[in-house]
Amino acid sequence: MAAEITGRCLCGDIRFAVAGPMRSRNHCHCESCRRATSSPFTTWFTVARGDLRWTGTPRLHESSPGVRRGFCPRCGSPLSYQTDRRPDDVDLYAASLDDPAGFEPQYHSHWDERVTWVALADHLPRE
């Protein structure tokens, strides 16, 4: 059996453990993710909602209809993304992983919304 996937917020008040595999891994360039993280893009991994266990309770913010973004109420670290369009999934930030060494994104999403001042030289598919 594979080891659990674990991570946390900046202050450590909120932690997560995932018992199952990552379903997908991507860099998201959409405007909403950029604004939620104040960064040119963010990197996600998707897990089954039933495989995710929280220690502490993230606060949820409805950033658009049917979309909830989780964050630590103490330090403000963004932690999760949930959408009614994929009720069985939760997206978590790759930067929150305790051990990101083996993490490899699979593709870029919302490439058409990217900021033009960041040049990326990888060869991942751009959707």
Break the fold down into its secondary structure elements and pairings.
Blueprint: E1 5-8, E2 15-18, E3 24-28, H1 31-37, E4 42-48, E5 52-55, E6 59-64, E7 67-71, E8 78-83, E9 89-93, E10 107-109
Parallel strand pairs: 3-10
Antiparallel strand pairs: 1-2, 2-5, 3-4, 4-9, 6-7, 7-8, 8-9
Keywords: Lyase, Metal-binding, Zinc
Domain CENP-V/GFA: 5-112
GO molecular function, one term: carbon-sulfur lyase activity
Quick overview of this protein structure:
One of its GO terms (molecular function) is carbon-sulfur lyase activity. By secondary structure, this protein is mainly beta.
Structure explained in plain terms:
This protein has one helix at 31-37, and strands spanning 5-8, 15-18, 24-28, 42-48, 52-55, 59-64, 67-71, 78-83, 89-93, 107-109. With 127 residues, the protein is mainly beta. It has a single domain (5-113), classed as Metal Binding Protein, Guanine Nucleotide Exchange Factor, Chain A. The strands form two sheets. A seven-stranded mixed β-sheet has the order 6-7-8-9-4-3-10, with helices on one face. Strands 1-2-5 form a three-stranded antiparallel β-sheet, with no helix packed on it. A hairpin with a 2-residue loop joins strand 6 (59-64) and strand 7. The longest helix is centred in the N-terminal third of the chain and has 7 residues, at 31-37. The N and C termini lie far apart (32 Å). The mean pLDDT is 96.
